[in-house]
Amino acid sequence: MNISILGSTGSIGTQALMVVDDLKGIKDITVKAISGNKNTKLLEGQARKYKPEIVAAYDKNSAKDLKTRLSDTSCKVVCGQDGLIDVATHKDSEMVLSSIVGFSGLVPTLCAIDEGKDIALANKETLVTAGQLFMDKIAEKNVRLLPVDSEHCAIFQSLEGNRSNKINKILLTCSGGPFFGKTSDELKSVTKEMALNHPNWSMGAKITTDSATLMNKGLEVIEAKWLFGVDIDDIEVVIHRESIIHSMVEYEDLSVIAQLSLPSMKHPIQYAFTYPKRLPSPDKRVSFKDIKNLSFFEPDEDTFKCLRLAKEAGKQGGIMPTVLNAANEKAVEFFLNGKISFLQIGDIVEKTLSEYKNINNPTIDDILSVDMEVRERLK
């Protein structure tokens, strides 16, 4: 199988390349094109090891540096949005792993679908901001959509063989992040280092911060709505501190089917790469004799308002999830740069949402325009 990876230097992208190595000799995967941003040293190393035909660095100066680094190779170095599109639409790639963090993954992923590529989706913002357009295009081009988020992969697996059966609800699990059980007063003194200290998962700074605010779970609620064709009210978020059960589906007969594994993104990545087959993995297995407890709690949507705001935006639909996402991306950027406090992330998102009127059935131009407008307003 030939693949392209959007975001090969990020947490998902680097683990995806580990999976490619793990599967060698079992399922051969050829990496045809990759993209990164400013980590040109890592991108160079990936290019030399996997020998893709196209390598993209979104940043112009990084692309210039990368071109020099790879001048002795046959790799074509490209940059910017056009470069990402070149990676996503490589003529020989059969599948695109969309693992860029944030809104910038939207257009390249849509272009990949237009070219008939199967999509392994780890870029949740694509579905959050353009869910209807995205799913319509998936259906129109008749390509496979395989979720790579651990929760959505778990739901996908829990639905296998049961697609004709009515479900009552989806149970979307959530680790609760580093601040589970904290009050608003206790969160006033949160530092960047504290927010990035996730108890179970190793992720990039943006996603880890979203996990701390529970915005990540809110975005996943909207994503699940589109992936599985359910109403927001039929998705229940459950805090599960151990991150062993990755999500569950409750059926009409009240049976609950779950997918369990240790917290590692390599499992859902491998499942996307090998679907519908299950192939051997070198990862550590679940040892039930060593698991002392599996606990479940209701999330605190008053203290962690980002989850509530995301669910409300998802119910409204239209352009509101785009506003939510853009405001959150800017607010998280401010927090990571030390410009605002942790609790101000939710305040900024809430205020921005209140300033916009909805646009039902937005076009791609509407989505791109509103996203840019929100970011400009929050400079």
Structure notes:
This protein has 379 residues and is of the alpha/beta class. The protein is built from 16 helices and eleven strands. The chain has helices at residues 11-22, 40-50, 60-69, 80-88, 106-114, 124-141, 150-159, 184-187, 192-195, 205-213, 215-228, 266-274, 305-316, 320-336, 344-354, 364-377, and strands at residues 2-6, 30-36, 54-57, 76-79, 95-98, 118-121, 145-147, 167-174, 235-239, 245-251, 256-260. The chain has a seven-stranded parallel beta sheet with strand order 4-3-2-1-5-6-7, sandwiched between helices. Helix 6 runs antiparallel to helix 14 (320-336) and helix 14 (320-336) runs parallel beside helix 16. The model has no long low-confidence stretch (mean pLDDT 94).
In brief:
With 379 residues, the protein is α/β, with parallel strands linked by helices.
